[in-house]
Amino acid sequence: MSTRGGTRWRTFVQTETGSAVLLLVAVVAALIWANIDVHSYEAVWQAHFTVGFDTRHLSLTVHEWINAGLMSLFFFVVGLEARREFDMGELRDRRWVLLSAVAGLGSMVVPAVIYVVINAGHDSVHGWGTAMSTDTAFALGILAVLRRRLPASLRALMLSISVVDDVVALLVIAVFYSDEIHLPALLVALGALLAVVVVLRLADAGRGLFCALLAVVVWVALHEAGVDPVVTGLAVGALVIAYPAPRGDLERASRLFRLFREQPTPELQRSAARGLASAISPNERLEQRFLPWVSFGIVPLFALANAGIELSTARLADAFTSPVTLGILCGCVVGKIVGVVGSMAGAQLLSGRRLRPNVGWGSVTAAGSIAGAAFTVSLLIAAIAFEGEELNQARIGIIATLIGSFAVSWAVSGVIGLLPAARRTRALLGTSEPLTDLGVAVDERHDHVRGPSDAAVTLVEYGDFECPYCGQAEGVVRDLLGSETDVRYVWRHLPLTDVHPNAQAAAEASEAAARQGRFWDMHDLLMDRQDELGERDLLRHAGELGLDMEVFREDLARRRGARRVAEDVDSADLSGVSGTPTFFVNGRRHRGAFDIDALKRAVEQARRRALAGG
To answer: Which of 36-45, 301-310, 494-503 has the lowest mean pLDDT?
Structure first.
């Protein structure tokens, strides 16, 4: 495979679109397999696998190990991402937590009611849980496909709804679809879960191994208690805190790496590796470790083991006239929209508009239509609630929701796209004020600002004159300022002195130039000559700019710019910034690539939101 081809493949598999496509491939493979040879399909998944010895063993089918065992890791990753949103993302606004909970519950109750109405008077009414759940992987996949039609902020809403959905669905499994509860084993599970909480608060050494062992104890105890143990993953994942990398930890990691570079011994290698790992929150480390296995291994395997249905014209005709299939399909595709939009509108009305979505009502409607994609948890509940032909009908209904949800979502986003520009912006982005990540607001009397003061969009960069990534981003920023007329750009210093020895002096030199009204001239020169930041270089640059050299030398000698640089560094700490370049667009931290297209998209969305709010 060529380098270019390899890069494209890595880019593909790192996206949610790639994960959803692989999941869809697994569904198709399961259907083909089951329709070619259903006996071999069933034989593989119904084979027993035993762990343990003598009377102390656990014997489950391969199907059960996948559904209850491996899928615990899927919910573990969901729990990690939910906790990260709670600690660092949209859910930091606790009003949004409450509104997401309301929307999540509404998106489950309405579909369940629709299912019960359609199945009233039939034995299948007890399968109402199959119509409640949204599949996180497919929902985010659909959102990725429609990303050019819908705002990026909609992802946080979808994730919030999905997390509430998963929590409630797993509680439904535990309460309504589990066997008789064995109290002593349940108490053991709760005790082990409390032990996980304690261990997570202890020192890092050995913590991961202890937590893994305790999670296994929780899983086994829940299984013995008669509660579906898949809930273990979500509970443990939600306990793992997330936080931005502290600058002090990053500087410590740099020192440890330099020691290893000077003396590459095994002991210093281990010390440097531990230092690098500890600089990142355990939440992010664990998600990075497990997400590829879950997205590209476990979830497709789950689909392969659960989506195999014998299809025929007669069976499809029976399914789409059966209350089970119709209840699931109508409950998910129609009920999710009604539930999400209705619950959010009701919460806004009852709270006097204190609770309102951070996106427009068009986006809320799109979220409801995307949430209609049911798969993972619905298949788990269907496998417990139904048998025989009813199970096949339920599976057909669940798979049909994927097609129905995508079709409705495409139609909703298409209708929004036909609206006039101003109404489309309001429908997508709404008028609510978004969360602000920037710890210290821009002050033109103090900050270094380029662009009109009344610009709709403010782009703030925390940078380092010796940072090569800042040098790459500089060209992007210049292109952006050259093509946009309503963007103002703010530079703030964050010299990474542990890795860039000349960065502090360069920052102070730019402040010395600022005292003579030439900050931006010096800024541009330093960014163009990042490999010329020594003391003599800085003096030569000042001479080229025609500065008063005597004043410039004295300002450098007395370090008159150090206090100004330190103020920017303090503001970076307040904003959770630890690396460069870090961008903020209208106060919101820009995450991801800083290429011209990515920044243009972020600026355009910020402009549209600002104009809609105005």
So the answer is: 301-310
3 state SS of 450? strand
Report whether the peptide linkage leading into residue 434 is cis, meaning its omega lies within 30 degrees of zero: no
- Binned at pLDDT 50, 70 and 90, residue 276 comes out as confident
pLDDT tens digits for range 360-372: 899 999 999 999 9
Confidence of residue 432 (pLDDT cuts 50, 70, 90): low
In terms of DSSP H, where are the helices of 14-123? Answer: 16-36, 38-46, 62-64, 71-88, 94-119
Determine the Cα–Cα distance for residues 364 and 349; give it in Å rounded to an integer. 15
Count the Cβ atoms, other than its own, within 10 Å of residue 95. 14
Q: Is the pLDDT of residue 408 over 70?
A: yes
Spatial contact of 199 and 168, defined as CB atoms under 8 Å apart: no
Q: Do residues 232 and 219 touch, judged by C-beta distance below 8 A?
A: yes
What would the pLDDT profile of 321-337 be if each residue is shown by its tens digit?
999 999 999 999 999 99
Separation CA 128–CA 112 (nearest Å): 5
Q: Is the pLDDT of residue 120 over 90?
A: yes
Whats the size of the chain, residue-wise?
614
Residue 597: phi and psi, rounded to 5, are -65, -40
CA distances from 578 to 204, 362, 400, 408 (A): 21, 36, 46, 42
Instruction: Compute the distance between CA of residue 420 and CA of residue 413 in angstroms, rounded to an integer.
Output: 14
Contacts of 19 (CB under 8 A, 6+ apart): 13, 137, 140, 141, 295, 296, 299
CA distance 140 to 81: 13
Alpha carbon distance 185, 483 (integer Å)? 65
What DSSP line would sit under 222-258, residue for residue? HHHHTS-TTHHHHHHHTTS---PPPHHHHHHHHHHHH
Tokens, residue 531:
């490999």
The CA radius of gyration of the chain, in Å to the nearest whole number, is 28
Phi, psi of 449, rounded to the nearest 5 degrees: -125, 135
CA 517 to chain centre: 43
| Range scoring the smallest mean pLDDT among 66-75, 397-406, 412-421 | 66-75
pLDDT of 213 over the 60 cut:
yes
Coil/strand/helix, residue 209: helix
Residues paired with residue 460 on neighbouring β-strands, in sequence order:
490, 584
Q: Specify the DSSP class assigned to residue 449.
A: E
- Name the token pair of 341: 């939009």
pTM, rounded to two decimals: 0.72
- Edge-to-edge strand order for the sheet containing 487-493? 448-450, 487-493, 457-463, 582-585, 588-590
pLDDT tens digits, residue range 541-586?
999 999 999 999 999 999 999 999 999 999 998 888 888 899 998 8
Q: What are phi and psi of 532, to 5 degrees?
A: -130, 70
Dump pLDDT digits (tens) for 371-388. Answer: 999 887 888 888 888 988
**Rounded to whole angstroms, how far apart are CA atoms 131 and 172?**
12
* Closest-CA residue to 231 (of 150, 280, 174, 274): 174
How far, CA to CA in Å, does 489 sit from each of 130, 444, 460, 484, 602? 51, 11, 6, 11, 14
C-alpha span between 485 and 451 (Å, rounded)? 8
